Amino acid sequence: MKTINSKKFFKEAKNIIPGGVNSPVRACLAVGGEPRFIDKALGSKIYDVDGNEYIDYVGSWGPAILGHSDPDVISAIQETLKKGISFGAPTFLENKLASLIVDSIPSIDMIRMVNSGTEATMSAIRLARGYTKRDKIVKFDGCYHGHSDMLLTNAGSGLATFKIEKAPGVPDLVAENTFSIPYNDIDTFDKIMGKYGKEIACVIVEPVAGNMGFVKPKAGFLENIRNRTKECNALLIFDEVMTGFRVAFGGAQSVFNIIPDITCFGKIIGGGMPVGAYGGRKDIMEHIAPVGKIYQAGTLSGNPLAMSSGIATLEKLKKDKNSYKKLETTTKKLTEGLKNVAQKNGIEVNVDSLGSMFGMFFNSSTIESFEDAKKSDLNLFAKYYKAMLEKGVYLAPSQFEAGFVSLSHTDEDITKTIDAADKSFQEIKL
What we know:
This protein has 430 residues and is α/β, with parallel strands linked by helices. Helix content is 39%, strand content 14%.
């Protein structure tokens, strides 16, 4: 593939943007390459500035569930754009999107819009601390909940990619109120809750971990968290920034039949526009200003372009009753195909999925925790990533990120991807 323009733009970017990127994983350092600069996207494909076409399994890190540049979403944004970009005042579009989410997620009575998943989790934890009048929180190793100070310990995602366990710049005084324990480790969690339960404001968890690769909760893990938080009067926060409206219309909580106290969203509820939200029971949410004393604000929160994009996306998903069945079927065809060609070529992999999220580790052992994920052969993954990229398949440039399938991915896309994987496995085993 020709990459002249991407190389030119990246060289220029490194002089004016730290590392040449505005989010670290995009630099492709973990796979020993350089980023392709994207020019446009349509359906299941993205196109770089050199004219190369790729089947995309990043999907803007999840929100492109309908596919890129969906005509209904684009139309909704264009109609709103004619009226203005931002007002810093309430609009009916905020009511409409909020109602769509509240009506779709039984655990949510009220919801507050913000601008990103980081803002959503940060604000949800502040709310939990204010509501419970406690300071300590529990998170799980490998779960990334955004880049707020209190959550940057063993945080998976980009930190795992760059082998950063504790981010410089985070005061010990902040970090010492955060317990970070192994994902799926029921015994350690029980010990922490047994000793500190009455001091813990909340437990925050990705119900399906998508930031250490792709790792499902083992049987009883989420149920135990729910039971222990109730016993200790701590709040349970589900970070569904990635899984919300992605693994099912009702989110992961509907799949596992768990009712959290607060849920955080991002990505899909804005149809790919910058957005986030956190919502929960009315008695908790009414502690937020202006009705309560727990302060959180945002000039661009509820931005009309993001609201209209989100409404169009969720309404389309809700209208088509077969959407999630189609997504699951397509994803399973992909993952089964990847397993088969890996086995054919004698490459040990662990491939799994839920709904339209999937992941693949270069390790045949069961993956239940961040420590398990880190045992994956990162060198082999880097070779695989580069081989797939050259064959027109766009994957996340990190072993510690999930992949995503959209409604725009066709059987032909999946067949081409599996064929590319077959050829890539043949190359990397040499």
